[in-house]
Amino acid sequence: MAVIRLFICLAAILVTACSREESADPSSPTDNTLQSQAADSGLADWPLHGNDAGEQRFSSLDQINTSNVSELGLAWYADIQSIDGLVATPIIVNGIIYMTSTFANVVAVDGKTGEILWEFDPEVRLDLSIASSWAARINRGVAYLDGTLYVGTGDCRLVAVDANTGVKRWDVMTCDAAAGYGITGAPRIAGDKVIIGNMGADFGVRGYVSAYDAEHGDLIWRFWLVPGDPALGYENDAMAMAAKTWTGDNYWQYGGGSAWDSISYDAELNLVYVGTDSASVLPTQRSPEGGDNLFLCSIVALDADTGAYRWHYQTTPADAWHYDAAMQTVLADLQIAGKERKVLMQAPKNGFFYILDRETGELMAADNYVTVNWAEGVDLKTGKPIENPAARFYLTSEQAFTMMPSGSLGGHNWHAMSFNPQNGLMYIPVHEISANYRMGESLLYGGFTVDLYGIDPDDVSRLSRTGKLIAWEPATGTVRWEYRHPLPMNGGVLSSAGGLVFQGTAMGKFHIYHAETGKLLRQEPTQASVQAPPVSYAIGGEQYILLPAGAGGAGRLIAPRYAEAVRGPSRLLAYKLGGKAELPPVSDWRPAIPEPPEQIADDETVKRGKALFNEVGCALCHGVDAAVGYGNSAPDLRYAAAETHEKWEEIVLSGSRKKMGMLSFEDSLSSDDARAIQAFVIQQAKKAHTKSLER
Asked: Contact, 27 vs 468, CB < 8 A?
């Protein structure tokens, strides 16, 4: 089935975060103050997105361990108002949980009881562009510094909120939502600065990353990630250098390189590391005479104070498959060839696990962590992949290529991996999914089509569609152990000093594994698909494991295709030793699908409507093949009322529901196209209606 790219947003002994001066406001303690308070009160927080600025996502707490994990129980749960599920990493400071949900809403929750303390709504606009409307439905969390929370919004704002009261302190416009930008990623802290990127490369915008003064919101620096119009001059020497890797007279019009998720920080080296996106069109269109196209699909190191370029490494030169390198970058100190090295590690979409010297950008290792057939390997001398010539499917219109891994979901996406510095293992939630690339009429992809297999429940045998959790050994470039899931798109990962690994699954389970062997030690129902990563904290000397549950991001688009029941409620689930709480009974809260209008279109029109639905962008919000599941912010069109069908062209072409986020597609679709899409939706509704009658 033809599918547009699913914009998934999308992800050591660290260098410890640099010390900051103590705040003059006693209600807004610094990290040093928090540490002393923790020692006195039995508190242990999760104050940064990855727990440390190097994004290791490892907890040094060991009260919950391999010897007593059987005693773990639910301490409390809190229902979170998030219509599109939860994908954020919770931040915990002084025992208070700060969580974001759909439309960048922020909620503060008591970490001991689950009581909701306050909520903040940044009032995100949905009518600015298709890209920002989509981005508004996904938010991966807040950053915290000295009593203030920072959150990015789908309509391109960076907002500062008082952590004690939930009152807005300031906001700044950091990108142009009307031009096709949006924000889905969490901000990061680097000293006294807030670092934020944006998304939209797939819509042709030019990516960049910005640093703001944490106290006042003043812009300190901005680094563009691909070159702009040379007639206007280059912003710096790095852009002039990058421009030499692009060709043609109008390469700059295609944008690319968004920093939609991955940002890490080394305080000792004073470097910020940014992972970047791919571009919206094929290399032959954006750069017709060749070139690597920097800084697409790259890791870029920047001076934290000035934003000046320091080094880069490109994972996929001249990318043609959407092999983003916007996945999490992890900082660690590793023994390599008998010498301790400061390294950066990443498992981007393209299937190779990279180890770089984080001081210089030198490539130290690159081994495939999933099945890879687009390249034989990576040349460690040149740093470039040894490509399979057949992978360049677009060089002839007749050529097609079945890729491993899929570029849309990748071998690894934004779902957090975790590094355990005690045993040297990286735990990675991976996909073994193939996709067929070929030339076609795709409107969104710019002339080519991607068939993503393994999603259709009526055709689950086609090619590969496996999800796994693997324990990757960076020192040897091998898999120590793996646990196979029935589905891809499983949750992020937490590892701990208790010898455990924690993960939620697409099928609505909470898994706890033995860190050394991968043995599944516990499995608890969550009543909802899980995409977000768990975190750990302690209050009063009791360790908690906190799991956000609820299908979000691309999970809400795909999960209904597996089984709508696993979509479930959006909740925070807190576990501790001896926990006795119980989840409420599961109820099927979905109404019956109404009888759809009469189908008057022929089979050929329905087939064309299906292709258009998945290629022009409808599936971004309404789900793969119009099956997003009931109750999302973007409706499942199988439930569309008669009035919606009567006003179909008014909605799709004229934008009559623009304020609700349904923008006009009149530039992409004709009246016949819109009616063909409607015919496909009616067909899907009829199938679902028939099945609902059979239940």
From this structure: no
User: CA of 443: how far to CAs of 402, 437, 618, 679, in Å?
Assistant: 21, 15, 12, 19
Beta strands in 453-534 (DSSP E): 465-473, 478-485, 493-496, 500-504, 509-514, 520-525
pTM: 0.91
3-state helix, strand, coil in the chain (%, to 5): 20, 30, 50
HSE value, Cβ hemisphere, 13 Å, CA-based, for 321: 34
- Cα–Cα distances in Å, from 567 out to 251, 376, 622, 687? 41, 38, 14, 20
Distance CA 606, CA 598 (A): 13
Q: Reduced to 3 states, what is the DSSP secondary structure of residue 550?
A: coil
pLDDT tens-place string over residues 247-304: 999 999 999 999 999 999 999 999 999 999 999 899 999 999 999 999 999 999 999 9
Rounded Cα distance, 463 and 431, in Å: 13
| N-terminal to C-terminal alpha carbon distance within the chain | 27
Are the C-beta atoms of residues 194 and 53 closer than 8 Å to each other?
no
Burial class (CB in 10 A: 0-12, 13-18, 19+), 289: exposed
For the stretch 434-489, pLDDT in tens is: 888 888 655 455 556 666 543 444 444 444 578 999 999 999 999 999 999 988 88
Give the number of other CB atoms < 10 A from CB of residue 127.
17
DSSP reduced 3-state for 592: coil
> Per residue in 23-63, pLDDT tens?
333 333 344 443 334 444 578 999 999 999 999 999 999 99
**Nearest Cα to Cα of residue 52 among 147, 189, 161, 146:** 189
**Which tokens sit at 685?**
């509704």
DSSP string covering 371-432, please? Answer: ---SEEEE-TTT--EEE-GGG-GGGSTT-EEEESS-TTT-SS-SSPPEEETTTTEEEEEEEE
